[in-house]
Structures are given as structure tokens and as C-alpha cells.
Queue: 3 jobs
Job 1
Amino acid sequence: MDQPTIKTLGELKKSGYQPKTVKEEIRQNLIKAIQQKQNPFPDILGYEDSVIPDVERALLSKHNILFLGLRGQAKTRMAREMVNLLDEWIPIIEGSEINDDPFQPISLYARKQLEELGDATPISWWHRSERYGEKLATPDVSVADLIGDVDPIKAANLRLSFADENVIHYGIIPRSHRGIFVINELPDLQARIQVSLFNILQEGDIQIRGFKLRLPLDILFVFTANPEDYTNRGSIVTPLKDRIESQIVTHYPKTVAVSRAITAQEARVLEEQMKRVEMPELCRMLIEEIAMEARKSEYVDQKSGVSARLTISAFENLVSTAERRALREGHPKTIVRIADFIGIIPSITGKIELVYEGEQEGPMNVAYRLIGQGIRTLFTQYFPDPQSFKKSTREPQNRKSKPVNNPYQPVIDWFGRGNDLLLLQDATDEGYREKLYQVDGLYAAVKQFYPSSDETEVALLMEFLLHGISEFSLISKKGVDAGGFAFGDILGSMMNMSLGSFGDDDEEEEDL
């Protein structure tokens, strides 16, 4: 809708405009959305049956809200989406610092305008996209930042007494009057600063430097906090928490499908990258599995959480890893490989907090371990569980039953004969496929389960199969300095370790 053309208070009165509070605006617009079966938060995925119903109930109740959850759980995103529930345009008295309602002015400036000009008071229009204020709580935030203070420079320039209301410089909260205001990481705010919010939440007014001033602000407050903050950095003072009517607990995606949809929505990948790089379904799924593994890993601090930003950054880095190889080799197009997951390690190490055991293991080793665990979990969705064949070989066979053929045995036997395989991440597509075809039984094992796959898909599945059976300890796998993996016989690897030939602690290779 275009901006209204009404310019004066008199014209606004004739139009029949009826003022509403912020919370009433949101309530009425939310009611319409619910009745029309519309999702008021279309960009928020995975909360349809949990967080969003709680938020809708809070907004229908005209409550201020506290989002309580670990990092990367879309708490601030939810607050920003609430702007869409505001009316598109509202009138304000032109020139007002705190967006005064022409029918209910609260600032000295606005009251004087009405006294002097009456129905000729100029009106301007405020779009809902501008009716949002946000402040990250840090220890250095002051009452003056949030509420306001006396401005001595203004007093000197205007030759006014400090007792004059005109010398007040309003903080960010009064300037958010008639809008939505968010304080992120509330526990980081000093207790004495949190106390300054009591009156705003309960009585709807503010006090500045002892002024006999009452500003009944009209604001929807949204606060965010991390449960871990209560012990690490601070706490929400009890009287303030008591004044926040609804506390809503957020969570991470509950399924890989939801996590993948969030990654696809949020990842910033250029069109030219996607033209050059093919991202297989398997690799998309593996990214999400790695994050799921991190959220239950004994090496990762679960109280800190594993942000959804991990999968988003990992997706972007994975595309760029394959793109870099294509650019170096002069290929117009390439496909993401399992070896390319080396390129997402910076996305993992930068997004997880480690417990003591994880610190002892080292961030790089933990990242490799998470990738391996993700491969192991995903492997049984694409191929038979290798452990089922281990069990069948131990159990006595019924004479009438047919022996169970292990599809991985030819591959294991090939490495058992002393062969090894080096798959470098930067190898050309042709060289990559040639290496894979050297392994006896590998192509046949993949074709047994994916007979209609083309050669490009088969090559990826062959590599995935090697990584998968290595995670089940059927063959050995090591990371190499050049960027890639070396596969070999598991027994030979164990013997080398026992003989001390595995390498010194200072070597760069990782035993995976």
C-alpha cells in the first residue's frame, strides 16, 4: 500500500482514523492471519508445532516476550518477523523524536505543536519496517543509552536550565515508542541497568535524572537470553523476569529434513557457483548429519549449543571448495566429493565450544571425528549396515539357508592384499574416477544397489562407500597433508602402529 497522502491532523480526523496500541495492532493482524490459515512467520522453519504456537498465544495475550534458547536458534529472527504483523503505515506528529501519536501526544514538543497549531499540526507517516529497535546487551550499556539523559550541550546551546524538559536526550527505548524493541542477551545487562526497565514494563513510563516526567511508552518488548548465561556471565534479575509475561523456549531443528531446509534457505551461494558446482543430495544430507552429531558429541559443550550457522557456513564452504578445484583445473563444471568435506573444517571449529576432553583431543581432530560420525550415520541409509554381515559370519548357517554374501568383502580383500589408495581433494575429475576404479569390487558393490546411476553418481557413491566401511573399521583411513585421504588395510595399519611406524606426535597426518 502506498503512503497515505494525509498531511494534517484535521485531515486525519476527517478520515476516520482510529489509533491503536502496538500490541493491539499486532493482535488484530494476527487474528486475521490465523483466520485465513496464514503462517505469520513464513521464514521460520521447524517451529510450526512448537515455538510459533507459543508466540501466537503470547501476542494474542498482548504479552512482552522472553525467548530462552541456545545460540543460533532464530530468537532474534523471530522478533524481526513480528514487524510484519504491524499496520503498514501509522501517523506521527512531524518532527517528533519519539514518534508521537497525533491523538495521544506524550512529548513536550508534540503537546506544544497541538496547542499552537491545532488541526493544522503537520502529520507524517511511519512505515512498519522502521518501527523496530534492537540493542545487544553488553556490560558497558548505560541507562542513558537505553532511557535517556540530560544533554548539557543542548542546554548550553538553547540557554535552558537543566530543569527544562527540552534538554532531555532520549535513549533508544523512547525512540522506539509505538514500535517493537528487542534486547538481545539480556543476562549480559548489568543488574542496575535491568532495574531501570521495571517501570517501563509495569507502569509503561520512564524517569530521567529525577525529572517529574511521565512518558507512557507504547512498546512491545522482546528479550532474548541463553540459558548458559545464567551461570557464565550474569542473570536476569528476578523482578524483571517476573514482569516479562511470556517465556518461550526455543530449540534446534528436530530432524535432518528441517535442518536441511533451513540451510537451503539461509546459505548465500552465488548463481555462478551453482552453475559450476553440482551439489549431490548425499552431500547435502551429510552436512546436516555432521551438525546432528555435534549436538550430541561428548567433546562438544552441549550447554553452549551448536548453532544452525554451522550447516549454513559449511554448505557455503563446501561449494567453494569444489569451485576452487574446478577453477584451478580449468573445468567448467565439477561435482562435490566426500574429500571436499576437508574444506568445511573451519566452519566446524569456529562454531563449536569444546569441553575439557575436546580441548585435549584438539579442534581439528574433533572436526574430523564429527565428519566421520556423520558418514557412519548416513552410510546405513544408502548401503546395508556392515555390522549385519559381521554378525552373520559368526552365526552358524542353516544348511537349507543360502550363505549371506558380503558386498564389501571384495573391497576389503583388495586392501588386505597390500594395496592402498590415495584420494586427493584437488585431483582432477578424471584422475579421481580412475583411482576409484582401481579398487576391485568397488564399482560392482555400488552398482548392485544403484544400477541406474550414471558414472558421476557412481563415482561419488564409490568414494562414500570407502569412507563408510572405514568408519566401521573394515579398512583404514588417514588424512594427508596435501588434502585428501589415504585408504589401506586395517590390519596392516594396526601392525604399523604397534611397531611404532605410525608417526610422531608432531606429524600433520590425522588418524581417522
Job 2
Amino acid sequence: MRNIFINNYRRGNRQFRLLDNAMGDYLLHHQQPAIGNYAENGLRVKDVHMAIYNLPPIFKQPFLLYFEGYKYYEIAVILNEPLGTVKSRIHFARKMLKSRLARY
């Protein structure tokens, strides 16, 4: 009984922290940003789009499908590639994007 109580107590605390954090994030993201941030955000989105556009086609196609919400195995079927190949291409696409966007 004691362990069940402790587990439930910890689970309850974790849920409240997640909800508090989610609400804090909601409030943080839904505040009106300053005018200067609009231009900065537009530039960042433009940079992301350009970085994705400049990916080699072998990495871009699986990455875009994954970004649209397809699962790894669905992408493997669509592209007629082995599952491991799809996973590694998405991994390397993310890695390339990360390095290219770190420059900005």
C-alpha cells in the first residue's frame, strides 16, 4: 500500500508540473511580441526554408515526409527503401540542417 501511495503521489506531482509548464509555455508564446521580433522571426523561417530547400534530394525527400507526420515505416514503403536507410537519411538531414542553421 505504501509503494502504491508513493507512486500515485509522484505521478500526480509530475502531471501538475507538466500542466503548469504547458500553461506557462502557452502564455509565453501567446504574448504579443515586440515589432522587432516579427522581422527576426520572418528571417528565421526564411532561413529554415532555404536550408531545407538546399538539402540534397536524397535527404530532403524523406525529411519532408517525416516533417509532414509520416512514420518511418510509412516513408520506407512510399520511397521503396529499407527502414534503416530512411532513418539514417532523416538523421543526417537533421544534422545538416542543425549545422547550417547554427551559422545564422
Job 3
Amino acid sequence: MDSSANANRRLLHVTSQLPQAAAATAPVDYPMTHDQISSPKDTENFIDNKFTSSKATQWIDLHDPATNNLVTRVPQSTDAELRAAVESAQKAFPAWRATSLLSRQQIMFKFVHLIRENWDRLAASITLEQGKTMADARGDVLRGLQVAETTCGITTQLTGEVLEVSKDMETRTYKEPIGVTAAICPFSKCRSSTSSGSPIT
């Protein structure tokens, strides 16, 4: 058997392991083709548990790599909006810190359920914004799902530990939330090529 046949067999095997998307119970309300979006909506900030329109004066245009059509505009958020986001997180922190590990675990279980429930919607968004094929985008969602599922089982690693260092003496470690943090996540600007006007599905 040649290498290409082996590769195809591996691909089919991996695909067979992917959980099936839930049966559609309502009309699809997200783009499933590379057709031009008639009225692209600006991406909003999510602050204080709600989406809010940005007052930014500078925006980043996000284009569909397959057609170069505009998908959305992402705000270069203002200093005031950044401060509002940090203040909101600081306000929520005391209650979150007091939340038990098991309650946090339940939130992650719900998050995993939502990823599975919206598998194709997430994949379609990746395809539209990054130019990946639908199969490749579904694989990206799978990798994210695996991270979320791993988080559900991390509770035993957050309880701290006791270590006996000598006779009648022990050390104890505690793991506690440290508060509001920020991260800048770099991402490769390389994009997969797709044929112009090809359907997402």
C-alpha cells in the first residue's frame, strides 16, 4: 500500500473518531458559504457580562481569505474600554475566588457541552475567518474541546498538598486564584489557501 493510501486511511480513521454534530433543530443562522455578507457587523467588546459597541476610532478589517470579502471589523479598543474590562474582572473576582472547585468544574462541564452543541458553527467561523477547509476547522474545534475536557479533570491538582519533611514536621501548599491577569496570544499570520467562491461545507 502506497503512502497516500496510508494517509487516507489515517484520515478516515481520525474522522471516524470525531463526535457527530447534533441534529439541527432550527434554521442555521450563521454563514455556511463564502458569499458576500450584505451588512457585516462590527465585533463588540464583552464587558460586565454583556456585549457593548466599541467607541474606537481605529478598526481592523477582517477579510474572508477565499474571496477577500469583509467579514467584520475588530475594534482597537479605547483605554477607557480596557480599564472597564479590568474593573469588571476585579469586581467579579471575590465571588469567583469563593466558588468551590466542584462548582467551577460544573461550569466547565457546561462549557464542554456548548462546544459540542455548536461544533459546526465554531468550525464555520474558523473557515470564514482563516480560510481553512471545514474538515481542518473541525479538527481545530476538537483540539479546543480536548483542552476544555482536560480542565474538567484538573480539580485534583488544585487542592494543594501536604509533604512530611521530617519527623513531626510537614509543609502544606495551597493553590488560590491570583486575580485579574492579561495575556497577549500571538497567532501565525499564515493562512491556508482556498479556491475563490468555494462553499464552506
